Amino acid sequence: MLELIGLLVGVLVGILVPWTIPSQYSLYVAAGLLAALDSALGGYCARLEKQFRLSVFLSGTIGNAAIAAFLTWLGQKLGIPLYLAAVVVFGTRMFQNFAKIRRELLTSKQKRDTINQLDIVSSHREDQR
């Protein structure tokens, strides 16, 4: 729930605050945003699997952002859009993490439904006695 509130506050601040990013930094910001979203989805996925570790999350977030910034910088120096490598990798991992999260949430809902059905069946049997 806290994650959802943070997301909503961030979106509202982004919409309501009249702030623009200079065009020379737009590729860096885009790569950084993708790195942050990838890390956030990866962290949430790890949390659902009960494997979340803050040190892994923070080092991954900082490392992803640094690699994305470096690729963007190097690509601009060479005149090659190397930032696309970060876009492809982060985009792929975001879709994979989203699929894991979706499966985990659906599986846990199905387990809850099965348990509730078993409770109904067992209470029905007790009523028949």
TrEMBL record:
A Gene Ontology cellular-component term: plasma membrane
Q: Which domain of life is it from?
A: Bacteria
Q: Which InterPro entries match?
A: DUF1290 (IPR009709)
Location in the cell reads: Cell membrane
Q: Does the keyword Membrane apply?
A: yes
Bilayer-spanning residue ranges: 5-21, 27-47, 54-74, 80-99
Q: Its membrane topology, per UniProt?
A: Multi-pass membrane protein
Query: What are the protein's UniProt keywords?
Result: Cell membrane, Membrane, Transmembrane, Transmembrane helix
Name the protein family. Belongs to the sbp family.
Name of this protein: Small basic family protein
Q: From which organism does this entry originate?
A: Candidatus Flavonifractor intestinigallinarum
